[in-house]
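Input record (one chain):
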Amino acid sequence: MRILRIIITALTVWLLLLGLPALYFADRAGLFSDTDIDAVSSASLALPEKPSGTCVVFINAGKHPDTLKDWKAFFTEAEVGVIMEDIHCMTADGDAGGRQLAERYLGRLAENQMKLRTEDPALLISRAEYGLFDVIVLSEEMAVLLDCSSVSAREDTETVIVEASINPVP
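The corresponding structure, as predicted from the sequence alone:
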């Protein structure tokens, strides 16, 4: 009887030591569901709509010498493979079109691959003139308003024009 109590106590201790952490870190919902989820599956959220009008994307080519071609294709929404590089994207405060397009790009990338930040427009252009940016997304109206010619004239800045197709309402 005493040996049985020792065995039951030892099994209970081992179950608590191994079972509780396993339950804590395991995907309990995935254990009992019929869905097949893997790391390569497509995103389950719908992408935000592309804003109407034209947008401008400035890429600091000096920060992306090996992947510049891939990023240019990505920002024009062409098919690209997996880009193994993180980016920091900035938009101007009050630029709804630029922010909407940047959020669309954010939805197309893996989680935490792109950090999105909104900046004061004057500070944004000042930083861009000195090359202190990674990627900037602006609507065409905001780019004209801020006179981004000095940013696009930099040698290490690639400018990508994104044309949004406007679908007529039937």
